[in-house]
Amino acid sequence: MSALPATMPTPRDEHWKYANLRGLARARFEPSVSPPAETVARITAALPKPLEGFERIVLIDGFVSSVSSTPSAFTTTSPISIAKLNADRYFLELNRRLRSDTLRLAVARHQKRSVEVVVVSLGTSHPAIEIALAEGAELSLIERHLPLSADATVINLVIFAVVGVHAQFELSRIVQASPKAQHVETIELRLCEGSASKFFQLTTGAALSRTTAFAAHDGRDSSLEWHAAALGEGTQSHDAFVHVAHSAPSAKTLQQFRGIAADRSRVSFTGHMRVDTNAPYAQCDQSLKCLLTGSEAEADVRPQLEILTDAVRASHGATVGKLDPDMLFYLLSRGIPEESASSLLKWAFVSDVLRRLSNPAIRAEIEYSLERVLPGAVAARSGT
Amino acid sequence: MTEIQAMLSIKDLRTTVGSRKVLDGLSLQVSAGEVHAIMGPNGSGKSTLAFTLAGRPGYDVTGGSVSYCGEDLLSLEPEARAQRGLFLGFQYPVEIPGVNNVYLLKAALNAARKQRGLPEVDALEFLMLVREKMKIMQMDESFLSRGVNEGFSGGEKKRNEILQMLVLEPSLAVLDEADSGLDIDALKVVANGVNALRAPDRAIVLVTHYQRLLDYIKPDRVHVLACGKIIRSGGPELARELEARGYDWLLIEAA
Fold first, then answer.
1. pLDDT tens for residues A12-48?
2. Do A332 and B147 touch (CB under 8 A)?
3. Burial code of A242-255, b = ≥16 C-beta within 10 A, e = fewer?
4. Which of B90, B99, B164 sits opposite A344 (nearest CB)?
5. Scanning every residue of chain B, which has its alpha carbon at the shortest distance from the alpha carbon of A326?
6. How confident is the model at residue A382 (pLDDT cuts 50, 70, 90)?
7. Nearest chain B CA: its distance from A350 CA (Å)
8. Considering only residues 210 to 249 of chain A, which have any Cβ-Cβ distance to chain B shorter than 8 Å?
9. A203 within domain boundaries
10. Do A338 and A240 reside in the same domain of the chain?
């Protein structure tokens, strides 16, 4: 294989400062192997019930294995990366070279689709999802990673989406990898005029995970909500770098992150927003918070605003703290055992992000995923 | 009244908060069926007494003993005290967004039932119980689905504290300034709630600044707490005297 045009990130690359690069360097990014038919059949049989009203598509090791209904034809060609730095493109380009299938999801003008993509990783995989929403189209996409393998799987995923003029896109991702997994992903969103996009992500599991994301407000009056939560336990490392570029007037971005670092884990999030000179009347809000619940855990949140025009409304806040002792004592004083009380407060902290989910089916899915790491979470929410 | 009969027996209790000595040899006996009012000037240690009984971290007991229903209360964790029927009504109830009110009520009730060897409460039975208590507190059912105290006004928070108390039916309720920040109508509602809990097998300790709460909840005993200890005890007439004369005369006498 010839050398990649991009180079592997190093700790000297600002966007990769908190990523577990040593772990990534050890990961073996090899071409994925098509899973045998019996494996596909076994996995398909073990999958949870499909979400009501959603088409289901299953990706096993990056191969499109089953499609409950045929996706419409894809209308764009060869997306161009908006990642400028060499290091940020490294895993994207690696994916392009090694990917097997590309799952293309398109929604035609003024049409609506609801799609559930189930991603299963058994060995090494390079899943690729390309999405195109035409003018006025609506797509609700839930992407669920199922930790079906106990092995040290390696996944390098790429999502590329073009959200057309006045289109509405909701992408909800449950990245629940197996404990030994190494999970890297690159996400790019291009937001056209008047479009509205909502992004949700819950990251749990995986020995290490890294999200590199770029979103660009290419058209005026576009809006983006980016809500993410990551829960680290053991020696896990979860790191994300999210860059949002405002390149057109009157665009809005709301970015929220809630991370919990337990045990000896490391959770980090860098939210970088840039408002160009030709993008006045922008509104940018960032709220990045981390909870440290492990004595040897580490959390880093970095809100970064780079504003090159005067007419901007912007706010940003970042905190790293421990469980609120007043809240904890209040729950204890009501007889709630300490472990449950801590779990409830962690749930409350993360629910700050999850309450933004508008689709009840997706919210239930995400809440049930959280139940594994925060027992009692679902009950606390619903009161059942 | 003998000490053996007392539900709560506090002897020579000494508590420090940080490096500050707050309770300094406080003794108090409360028997089942009684309502005791603790009054006193600001900074005298009233809230410290409430938090010490509930086991709040940072309130370090340096001396004395507290017996509750025959058990050494101070050796129990805060949650174990609550499970055994001790309820603290907070002066400033904490907001916990994301944790549902009704969930907290149910989890707290089940924790107490578990301690008593009872099964979890039946869902329908629980709902009927909560509705009945909400009626007493004149609370709308929409409160149940909201986060604990989230966005509640001061009065709503106080009502919510008393609602929790009514659902949990504690043996001993320690209410820290249940009347602060309430208008007269809300005060009556809160007082009704507290009176609804009065029973021969329960006791209530009211921490308050003002006589006005005691117009609606008639105490059996009134105590004045100053400089970390009880400096005077008496009947309901003592509260009226304090309202008329303030605390200075007692402080001078005690000195």
1. 888 998 888 888 888 888 888 888 989 888 888 888 8
2. no
3. bbbbbbbbbbbbbb
4. B99
5. B94
6. low
7. 8
8. none
9. yes
10. no
Query: What's the half-sphere exposure (Cβ side, CA atoms, 13 Å) at A372?
Result: 18
Same domain, A69 and A126: yes
Using DSSP bridges, classify how beta strands A208-217 and A182-191 pair: parallel, antiparallel or unpaired. parallel
Residues A371 and A296 in one domain: no
One domain for residues A282 and A337 = no
Indicate the pairing of strand B96-100 with strand B147-148: antiparallel
Which residue of B lies nearest to A338 if distances are taken between CA atoms?
B79
Which two three-digit tokens encode residue B175? Answer: 């209410």
Residue partners of B231: CB distance under 8 A and separation at least 6:
B224, B225, B250, B251, B253, B254
Q: Are residues A364 and A302 in the same domain?
A: no
Q: Are residues A203 and A251 in the same domain?
A: yes
Instruction: Indicate whether A71 pLDDT > 80.
Output: no
Show the domain range for A219. Answer: 14-322
**Whether residue A197 sits in one domain with residue A334:** no
Q: Which residues on B lie below 8 Å from A338 (Cβ)? A: 77, 79
Residue A24: half-sphere exposure toward Cβ, Cα within 13 Å: 23
How much is the pTM?
Answer: 0.86
- What digits encode the pLDDT tens for the residues A144-160? 998 888 888 999 999 99
Are residue A104 and residue A162 in the same domain, yes or no? yes
Residue B98's pLDDT is 85
* pLDDT on residue A69: 47
Q: How many domains does chain A have?
A: 2
